[in-house]
Design goal:
93% of the residues lie in helices and 0% in strands. By secondary structure, the chain is mostly helical.
Length: 44
Amino acid sequence: MREVMLGAAFIHVNQLIYMNYMAIGMARRVPGAAGSSLSQSSRL
């Protein structure tokens, strides 16, 4: 069962990294959205 938990955690981390990477890529493409998304993330 430990391997299953490690695999699930690994996939979860990869999803978080992928989502962050996509958010950064979108923010770079749209200068206006970059400021708002960065301010929102800094508030959290």
